[in-house]
Amino acid sequence: MSALHIKKGSSSHSAYNLRDPNGEIIEKHTLAVLVENEPGVLARVIGLFSGRGYNIESLTVAEVDHKGHRSRITIVTTGTPNVIVQIKAQLGRIVPVHDVHDLTVEGGSVERELALFKVHGTGDKRIEALRLAEIFRANVVDSTLESFVFEMTGTSEKIDAFADLMRPLGLIETARTGVAALSRGTIA
């Protein structure tokens, strides 16, 4: 399986403050799913979400155990508490799935994302883009006389904030990897 990212349009609203039409709170959860690294597994997982109308905010997948032929899918999804329970149960029933962990409820986790930003700018806008990049610890990985490509890792919120500041300075294009996450501590 290769790395893949699906990111829906972001909103400045917290997922924890949203409510569905019945008044239930909609939560954001990060799920770590250990699967067999074989053709069709990712399609089955995505099919589960699309077939039931569940939302995927972010999806990344990569092989994590070459000898054991296992890949890890990290999914950031939203839904009511009942929907999240259904998602986890249905993921667990897919045959090539070995493990499903809800990192949001199982304790602390570390989440990071990598993003590339292409910013067009000259003069004062160019200077301001470089100043902000330094504050956000973004690295310049490509530069021309009229543009930069910045690379940054951090939380999704940090990346969103940097993008918001770069837009008026000439943000042309953004590429994001999606969330990679691990639970904190030694218990998996």
Automatic annotation (TrEMBL):
Residues annotated as domain ACT: 30-105
CDD domains referenced in this protein's UniProt entry, alphabetically: ACT_AHAS
Taxonomy, superkingdom: Bacteria
One GO term describing the cellular component: cytosol
Catalytic activity: 2 pyruvate + H(+) = (2S)-2-acetolactate + CO2
GO molecular function, one term: acetolactate synthase regulator activity
Pathway recorded for this protein: Amino-acid biosynthesis; L-isoleucine biosynthesis; L-isoleucine from 2-oxobutanoate: step 1/4; Amino-acid biosynthesis; L-valine biosynthesis; L-valine from pyruvate: step 1/4
The keyword Membrane is annotated on this UniProt entry: no
EC nos: 2.2.1.6
Single biological process term from Gene Ontology: isoleucine biosynthetic process
UniProt keyword terms in alphabetical order: Amino-acid biosynthesis, Branched-chain amino acid biosynthesis, Transferase
Function as written in the Swiss-Prot or TrEMBL entry: Catalyzes the conversion of 2 pyruvate molecules into acetolactate in the first common step of the biosynthetic pathway of the branched-amino acids such as leucine, isoleucine, and valine.
Family stated for the protein in its record: Belongs to the acetolactate synthase small subunit family.
Self-association state and partner proteins as the record states: Dimer of large and small chains.
PANTHER family, A to Z: ACETOLACTATE SYNTHASE SMALL SUBUNIT (PTHR30239), ACETOLACTATE SYNTHASE SMALL SUBUNIT 1, CHLOROPLASTIC (PTHR30239:SF0)
Stated name of the protein: Acetolactate synthase small subunit
